[in-house]
Amino acid sequence: MRTAYTADQIRAAEHALMARLPEGTLMQRAAAGLAAVCATALGRVYGSRVALLVGGGDNGGDALYAGALLARRGARVEAVLAGSRTHERGLEAYLLAGGRVAGVMAVERADLVVDGLVGIGATGALREPYAELARAANAAPALTVAVDVPSGVDASSGRVAGAAVEAQITVTMGAPKTGLLVDPGAARAGAVELVDIGLGPYLPAPDVTALTGADVADLLPRPATESDKYRRGVVGIAAGSDLYTGAAVLAVGGALRAGAGMVRHVGQHAPVAQVRSHWPEAVVTELERPSIDGVGRVQAWVLGPGLGTGAWAHEVAASVLASDVPVLVDADALTLVSRDRSLLRRTAPVLVTPHAGELSRLIGAGRAEIEAGRLEHARAAAAELGVTVLLKGSTTVVAEADRPVRVNATGTSWLATGGTGDVLAGVSGALLAQGLDCYDAASCAAHLHGLAGRIAADGAPLNAADVAAAIPEAIRRVHDEG
Ligand SMILES: NC(=O)C1=CN([C@@H]2O[C@H](COP(=O)(O)OP(=O)(O)OC[C@H]3O[C@@H](n4cnc5c(N)ncnc54)[C@H](OP(=O)(O)O)[C@@H]3O)[C@@H](O)[C@H]2O)[C@@H](O)CC1
Ligand SMILES: Nc1ncnc2c1ncn2[C@@H]1O[C@H](COP(=O)(O)OP(=O)(O)O)[C@@H](O)[C@H]1O
Ligand SMILES: [K+]
């Protein structure tokens, strides 16, 4: 399990650790780790050109001490001092080692830029001249290594309010920060390298977590000798309408590939015919009236892909949500429940799987605001609706009351194409039917779906059906990792 922490959590742990150590020890450890990563990135330190962007706080101190170590190894290091004050001892050590102070031009001639403008002590958008220096680093040809977090990225949320450094590597101190795992911040961080400064024993429960492949392998059910199709879990899929037929085919495909014992599809004439011809394995029921009465027992429902938003769809949704098994609410069913919240009044678990636009309809926040603050909005929605929320997008976020948010970054932007969300709904539904709770089903499905997207894309466009077809390979890979 990967774990990440807010700035406040890190600061509290640092204080506890610092109290037991001679002054300056932590910064020395941080700087040594930072210098080592810079040296590896440079390949040859002697004769290389390094520019340090130095802010007024301890983040700048880290950069100066690391700069001193690189200067002692023969690098030509130039520091651009951005703050009205500078870490005094760090600057002394740096100058003593042969480092120089320079203007912004140093950035343009550097092989490597070290972003020590701000770390966990930053508040709000970068002010000038910090913002200008961040833009200069982004425009320069050099490799950029961020200290702790890319400056301009909020360490606790991943928000980016203005200019922000786009790093190729982020050297994070003590423990990863939440903002390094959640977009838009995560996209600015590049590869994240952790420097162990001894914080481990002082860290609280994490703010967010991310499942590794091995974690997913542990959680995934495997059929046993005594398994049969009913015991493995039957998933019901209420999807498709005479207008939208493809969504049902894709959701059923996702569920079949993710290990459901059986997939039962219910819908109108056209989607039922499509599902029947694509998936002879599925059991289909053409609904004569908008109700699931008498279609047979399932262990979980997927409700919504392509269902439509009219009166007929509303009746189907009410009928599915009146059942006593977990229900995944996706796509058109999200529109239905945002119009009629009373549909969510039930005791069995609910998993909602919106993208930012759908979440915007559900909780009334603007779409752009949700994209900018994915964590806080997913958390707020889970609390307000009393459900598990899987918020889709470049980083997928799974939120449930009283549990750390799980984030997933296995995906690829090639997944941004029509129908991949329907596949995700099917995969998640199959995991629910196999007995995973909403939190685990959603986070395992997001992991597998992202990985399947990578396998299917392999650097070129994919279509949604390819993603479903790659789910078994994704499952094999997580088992290999486990
Ligand atoms: N503590 C430890 O043991 C260890 C700490 N470590 C390191 O310390 C870092 C935290 O250091 P920190 O607390 O000094 O804060 P930091 O991130 O440098 O920012 C403060 C400075 O930024 C400025 N500033 C703020 N907002 C701004 C804005 N929007 N735009 C522009 N400027 C802004 C602010 O200016 P002021 O408001 O004072 O004018 C002040 O000068 C941490 O990330 C890690 O790298 C490691 O060495 C491990 C051991
Ligand atoms: N930029 C991106 N990077 C990674 N994954 C993405 C990106 N954009 C979309 N996705 C993923 O693709 C899927 C799209 O789902 P959705 O928006 O519901 O599309 P549709 O309704 O067409 O099926 C989600 O799993 C989402 O997380
Ligand atoms: K930084």
TrEMBL record:
AMP binds at K392, G393, S394, T395, T396, G421. Pfam families: Carb_kinase, YjeF_N. Binds 1 potassium ion per subunit. Keywords: ATP-binding, Isomerase, Kinase, Lyase, Metal-binding, Multifunctional enzyme, NAD, NADP, Nucleotide-binding, Potassium, Transferase. The keyword Nucleotide-binding applies. Its cofactor is K(+); Mg(2+). Homotetramer. Bifunctional enzyme that catalyzes the epimerization of the S- and R-forms of NAD(P)HX and the dehydration of the S-form of NAD(P)HX at the expense of ADP, which is converted to AMP. This allows the repair of both epimers of NAD(P)HX, a damaged form of NAD(P)H that is a result of enzymatic or heat-dependent hydration. This is Bifunctional NAD(P)H-hydrate repair enzyme.
